[in-house]
Amino acid sequence: VALGHGVVGAFSPSGNLFAICTNRKTLVVWNTSPWEYVSKRKLTKRATAISFTQKEDTVIIADKAGDVYQYSAKDSVAKPSLLLGHLSMIMDMVVTDDNKFIITADRDEKIRVSHYPNSYNIEAFCLQHQDFVSKICLLNKSGVLASGGGDGSIHFWDFRIGRLLHTEQMEEEKGQQITEVVACMACCQKNHVVCVLSLFAFSSCEIQLFSVHQKSVTKLDTIVTSTPPWHVTFDPDGRLWCVQPNPKEPVLIF
Question: Can you say where the WD repeats lie in this chain (predicted)?
């Protein structure tokens, strides 16, 4: 998850580890129970996305130069290895829960599906965005990838073959089409729901929800918050957590 000011962080699948890349180009990994330092190392470029593998022994990091490296989660001395590279900055990245694919989205409108760990082997491209792809998230069981970008559109893909399943264009209440960037996306693996937050939500206080069953996408009722939200995420029980700049009610749970 992007934490602002060039900082990105991620929990491991079990939640036992937490890794963060700071704006000083440093990767730090902690145990979470109890909280204690595990490893620390310097990065060559500022990180733009971070993820753990399912075995939790490896941290995968994408950077602003368009490269993706894998690092040992616990060995600060082990050298990183280059997995793949784009010609432009990588904006977001996900690793499938079976550890077979890395999906990367870049500033040049492209989404690439690469095999892992042999990432020179490209499975598919998802090409439909008209501007940079800012966020992607994956519903693992259905194999549906959601993506949003600077063109204000939300696309849903069968990522294994790069086939577009559904498209939504973000619109304001008056029906005026906007071209604001999609700022945050979250997937609920339990209920097969995708949540989308775009920059226009800073003035409209709206959270868009979509239900995905097999390869079919349905738009759900929009959630309206009392204050423009900053960030959204789902917990393992399927509850939606919304962070907003409201001192009296900083967190909403739906």
Answer: 126-167
